[in-house]
Structures are given as C-alpha cells and as structure tokens.
Fold this protein.
Amino acid sequence: MLDLAFIRSNPDVVKEAARLKNNSIDVDALLALDQQVVALQHEVEEARAKQNQLSKGIQQAAKEKNTELRNNLIAEGKKLAEFIKAKEPELHQLIEERYNLLLLVPNIPDPSAPVGKDDSENVPFKYWGEAPKFDFQALDHYDLMLKHNLVDIERAVKVAGSRSYVLRGDAARLELALINFAMDKMSRKGFTPLIVPSMARDFAFVGNGQFPKGRDQVYELKDQDLFLVGTAEVSITGMYKDEILKGEELPLKFVGYSPCFRQEAGTYGKDTRGVFRIHQFNKVEQYIICKADHEESVFWFEQLLQNAEELIQELELPYRVVNVCTGDMGDGKVGMYDIECWVPSEKRYRETHSCSYLHDWQARRVNLRYRDEEGKVKFVHTLNNTAIASPRILIPLLETHQQADGSILIPEALRPFMGGQKFIGR
Ligand SMILES: Nc1ncnc2c1ncn2[C@@H]1O[C@H](COS(=O)(=O)NC(=O)[C@@H](N)CO)[C@@H](O)[C@H]1O
C-alpha cells in the first residue's frame, strides 16, 4: 500500500507505475472517492463540534433558567444527532471502499528496473558457472529420479491428485540436507532461524500482498479464517502486525522454513513433468525488516541476492541473475532479481530464487512501524529472497551432477548434511 498523501500529491507518478506494471487501478476514481471521504468526514466533525457548543449552551440556558432557549437548543442538538447517525454508516462505507482500492495500488518501481510487459523482457545481468558437457547420454531429473527410485508420483497422485509427489530414499534425505544446509549457513550469517506456521489468517496475506489479487493461488481452510501459505514470507510479514519496533533493534534478519502450498491456478499443462511446478514444496526464506531508508533497502537487496548466490555456488550449479522487468515484478516490488539455474535437459535457465525489496508497501499493509533515533515513528522497509526451495532445486542439482554411470555426485558442501555420503546411486 502507498501513503495516501503521496498518491494525492503525485497522481501521475502512481498512474505511470500502474501503467508500467499492467495494473488497471483507476487513480482518478480513487482520488475522487478520497475527496468524498474527506468532505463527509469534515461535515461529521463540524456537526460534532456544533453538538459540543450546543451542550455548553444548554447548560448555560439551564443555569439562566431560560427554558425556551434550552428547549430550542435541545431540539437543534437532536437534529444534529440524527444527521450524524445517518452520515456515519455512509462515511464508514466510503472509507472501506477507499481502503479496498488502496490495496490495489502498485508500488513505484525503481528507475533501475527494466520497463517490460512480461518475463520475456527480464534482463539477465550476471552469469556464473559453465553448463556441464556430458560425454554420455544425460538424463533429465525425472528419469534420474525414476532410475534411482527417488520419487513416486503415481501413488502421490492417488493420495493428493495432480502436481503431487513422494520423495523417496536419498531424494528425501537430499531435500532435508538442502534445508539444513541453507538454515545452517544463513544462521551463521546472523539470520535468526524460524520455523513458521504454514496456516495464516487473511490479514497476513493482505500484508505481504498476496491478497486481494492472488486469492486464487491460495488454499483456504473451510469455515475458518485460515489459509495455507505459499511462502514463509506471508507468516513472517504477519508476525509483526501493529507493532512499533525500536530503531536500534533493526535490521531484523530471519531465515524462515515452512512447507509452502500453491494452487498454481492458470498453469494447466505447464511444467507437468516431474517436480518443477507442484502444489506443495519446502522453502527456506530470507526475510529482512529494516529502517525506512532507500540506500539501506538497496544494501539488503544486494545482500540477500549474494547470500543465495553463495548457496548456489556451493552447490556448484551454473546460474544467471535477471533484473525483473516492471510488467513481471508484481504490484508490491520496488525492485526484483530472479536467480535462474541452468537445467541441462531443457538447455535453458529456470527460476529457482526470487529476491525483492518493497520499501514500506508491505509494512503499511500490516501497520508495522519503528521509532527512529529522533523518536519519530515510521513504517519499516521489508525485503525477502529465497534461500533454498525444494524439490525444484533438485532438478538442476541431479541433472548437473549426474555421472556417466547414472549416479549423482553430491556436492562437497552438502555431504556433511548427508552423513558424509558422496554419491547417490552407487
Ligand atoms: N509451484 C511451485 N512448485 C515448486 N517450486 C515453486 C513453486 N512456486 C515457487 N516455487 C519455488 O519458490 C521460489 C520462490 O517463490 S516465489 O514466488 O518466486 N517468491 C517467493 O515466494 C518469495 N517469498 C521469495 O522466496 C521460486 O523461485 C521457486 O524456486
């Protein structure tokens, strides 16, 4: 959410941001509604002030035993009370409508973000590692998993329907190793490990920006105000709702683990082979809450990216980083980098991480503030990035490290989390 005062004084900046983000918000309609609210608020406040004067006048008239004046003033007070009683529901209705429109206003993208309509216009700006050259017939991730009995999709589909899977044997151990590897490394970087709820209330989804627009991607628990999170980002954003943090506490740095659930509405027929695009997966999430300062946000944006790059480099996976364009970054972002790992079987890079900074757009939605060194209370800035999301990361991992004999070499950095094991399938 943007500051209403900012929208009032910069309507064209907000309209341009909406255009760049393919966001259809009608800023003029919002401002017209806002003017109605302000006018009606003023009327009601005037009426209340008049009521106060009248009650003083009534007391004065009573003191002076001026019954006629007192009765007239009481009658006038009654008329005012009826006016206020009639106007208040209308005012609340208009305030609610304005709030619902405010939730749809996008953040202002940083000028460094490429202008574009969709992911085809994201701009790669960094490459690391060489695509592996196999002198044997390399297998894709699903064939590798089948070969080593690492997955059971048929039985998962029996239990849970499409886009579900069972990880078996060393794949199950590998996923847990990856989660521990990420949690361990990030903890040693001073990020506080969290294991957060995967069920959260509506307000948390409004908070991170998933609601209202992305409701169709979220599983709802029947007859409860509870929904399954698609990312720990939702739960962590909701944790601090309505709090005022001490400036000296910032930045708060979290590495949060949670199972993640996504409807993947609108992706019918896309990435149906194996475990690339599924309804449930596990993710280790980096999350920062920092002071309201652009340079500070940009610093942490780069740090979160670097943390993920270090993890991927330790997994010895070739990747590239793309600067996400305005049409693909979504409403809440000021800037966004995706990391895409090379997938040998597809001979292309596929997204495995997504890094964003949002200034105070989420903080305003959960009313999360801090008191700065001058005692001024401000909304914080928030940022997030993937540390590891599995099983998607298993795809480049298994394919890149497969050997001629079909076994898979476990990267050095993961072995301590796999009991020292060096290979899968040997
Ligand atoms: N349906 C899915 N199946 C498997 N992995 C997924 C799915 N959706 C997302 N992921 C993984 O989770 C990562 C982060 O998802 S994201 O929506 O891009 N971004 C976030 O959730 C942010 N909170 C940063 O993690 C993706 O890069 C991808 O690796």
The two ends are 53 Å apart (CA to CA).
